[in-house]
Design goal:
Elements (H helix, E strand, L loop, with lengths): L1 E9 L5 H10 L8 E7 L10 E7 L2 H9 L1 H11 L3 E9 L1
Antiparallel strand pairs: 1-3, 1-4, 2-3
């Protein structure tokens, strides 16, 4: 199992709900994507990142197919990249 995490901040706070909704509406329905979640950090102390998206895959090949899927492309271009700052993406096994 491959676990992908995206830690990030937003440029505009009013876009958080849109990103959350579209994460579940679009990404959770891409074939191969499993256990999709959107989370907010507990606001204690000096945080580097305030938001987290996680997605699991059976393999890196499944991840590659996910990246090319039209729902992921739509999410990334319309609802994520324009509003996100300080993005860190990491994979875990």
């Amino acid at each position: 199992m491959i676990h992908k995490i995206l830690l990030f901040n937003v440029k505009e706070f009013d876009k958080v709900n849109v990103i959350r909704e579209k994460t579940m509406e679009l990404l959770a329905h891409v074939p191969g994507a499993q256990n999709v979640s959107f989370r907010e950090a507990i606001n204690e102390g000096d945080l580097q990142y305030h938001y987290l998206i996680t997605v699991d895959f059976d393999s890196m090949q499944a991840h590659e197919q996910y990246m090319a899927h039209e729902k992921h492309v739509e999410f990334s271009k319309q609802y994520f990249r324009p509003y996100v700052s300080d993005l860190l993406i990491q994979f875990f096994s």
